[in-house]
Amino acid sequence: MRLGRSVRTGLFAALGAVTLACGIALALPLSQPASWEPDQPRLAAVSDARALAATAASPPDLDAAALATRETLADRPLDATAWVRLAWIADQHGDAAAMLDALDRSYVAAPHGPDVTAWRLQFCLNRWGDLTPELRHQARSELIVASRTRPALVRAVRESVSDPAGRMALSLTIPDDSSP
Questions:
Q1: Mean pLDDT on 138-158
Q2: How far from 30 is each of 17, 35, 36, CA to CA, in Å?
Q3: What are the backbone dihedrals phi and psi of residue 175, each rounded to the nearest 5 degrees, phi first?
């Protein structure tokens, strides 16, 4: 009986010693900071900030903005603001097909904004003649929702639209209440 107890005690002690040795062996490389490699995902906010900085430069660095925007979209594919920025960049390059595609993707990501509504409506209404019928329908739908929930935003958009076709579409969709 005594022999069985001492064998069990010896096995438990050996198991404890092996566990401790393995733990130290696994933890030792992690205790040396020079060997650490961060395994963190890219921050979409950083690439988004880079894109904004590139578009704010004078003149805008469209290639850097496009690259940073695509990095943002790699991390957040449903970022409507990034899609609209990509549409603007394509428009600046004169690539109508890419502009329409990116604008459509922005509506897929967030059909009624809210963060991108003002900028996207201004963009759409100032290029009304270039939009597809589906994009016009989506813009009108967003405009109607915005007029009911954020009338001040619609007034600001109304003041910023310079395209005659866009102004007419805006007036036909949301009548101007300030007219006599």
A1: 94
A2: 21, 7, 7
A3: -60, 140
Q: Kindly state the percentage of the chain with pLDDT values over 70.
A: 88
pTM over 0.85: no
DSSP string, the chain: -HHHHHHHHHHHHHHHHHHHHHHHHHHTGGG-GGG-----PPPHHHHHHHHHHHHHSSS--HHHHHHHHHHHHHH-TT-HHHHHHHHHHHHHHT-HHHHHHHHHHHHHH-TT-STTHHHHHHHHHTTGGGS-HHHHHHHHHHHHHHHHH-HHHHHHHHHH---HHHHHHHHHHS--TT--
Q: Is 113 left (phi over 0), alpha (psi -120 to 50) or beta?
A: left
Question: What tokens appear for 108 in the block?
Answer: 């897929």
Cα separation of 95 and 180, whole Å? Answer: 41
Least confident piece of the model among 4-13, 29-38, 119-128: 29-38
| Mean pLDDT, all residues of the chain | 87
Which has the closest alpha carbon to 125: 153, 86, 97?
153
